[in-house]
Please model this.
Amino acid sequence: MFGTSATGLQKTTSYKVVLPFYIYGALSFLVACVLLLINTGVVHQHYFQPQTLAITHLMALGWGTMIILGASHQLLPVLIEGELDSDLLAYLSFIFGAIGIPFLVTGFYQFNTGWVLQTGAVLINGSVICYFLNVVTSIIESKKFDVHAWFIATASLWLFATVFFGLLLVFNFSRSWLPDNSVEYLSLHAHMGLAGWFLLLVIGVASRLIPMFLISKYTSTVTLWWIYALINVALLGFIVLKTMKAFPQYYYTPFLLVLVALLLFGRLCKKAYRLRIRKQVDEQMKVSLLSVALLFLPLIALLVVIYFISIAEQANIVLLYGFCIFFGWITAIIFGMTFKTLPFIVWNRVYRSRAGGKTPAPKELFSERLFQTMALLYILGFLLFLAGIILLNDILLKSGAASLLGSAIFYVWNVAKTLFHQPSK
Model:
């Protein structure tokens, strides 16, 4: 989804800053799919148990957040028409996150709520603080305060709020820092990250780059400001309702606000697609546009969750909701994003200094066949596992997890092929 042009890339950050995030994210996705295959039985259990927490945080932090951090370090200069303020902060963000995530995931998997989990939480907070400071100072120095800059700055603030609240929850396991036990605050922690971080950042970046990559002249700043306001008001409203322990029926209000925001975003993407100049859309862009449609699956699951809360029964719908987000929407975004940005980064590293001579197009640095195989295995695995959650069928769950693992293997293979590209002699 987050494609850019060779012209825009000349402004972007050094590949030495960006590539480690991509490599780490790819390996995290592979490990998450292995853990999913080994632990498909978690679907039959309550969502608050060690293996589920470990896989969820590995997908949210190691896969989704690390890839997006890497991409945003590359694309932020393009969006704000300036430069990244500090490469050092970017390196520190990666180092703290790369060390902290394994501690956190291991702590959850073994449910070691002591120093292992706490060390991971502290390091991840350090990573996010470095990223947040880098984003804010870069935007201030660029003096580019348009709606896209507001989306990115606010998303990074919500990311900090998410991980800091997560830090409190981790220490609350053993020190009782909060009035209630940590389980009571999970939905607050989760939705600050999902709506405040992922949703705001993805919409803010995609609303600029989808029209740009489709070569579409359509844009609507007014619509984007409405989307920005609706998501933030909905999230703040949810936090107030949850803090006040309001009746479950009141949760329909923030749900409807987010639904309206997503409908507006879908309408914006549809108009950009219809008014595009480039008529032929490649496979990577199709997968990215598919991710926009996949946004509505977790919303449907969330609507069911709200209904079941009101009758004191949730069954396995919460797991369905989380799966649709992390293995559905976010994964589809990253699949499309990776092979729109990574080839440009590698091409710039390999061929930028070569004067004259024939050079391949960036899209030739990865394998289209591997990408198509990955996409097919991913769609098959997602649908099988989704059906397995709904039907509580172990065969469907194992088959779906195996297919998702296959897609992860092809993804890592294609990423490696791109990273190790060498010019032909």
Remarks:
- The longest helix spans residues 317-351.
- Residues 6-349+360-419 form a domain with the Cytochrome C Oxidase; Chain A fold (CATH 1.20.210.10).
- The radius of gyration is 21 Å.
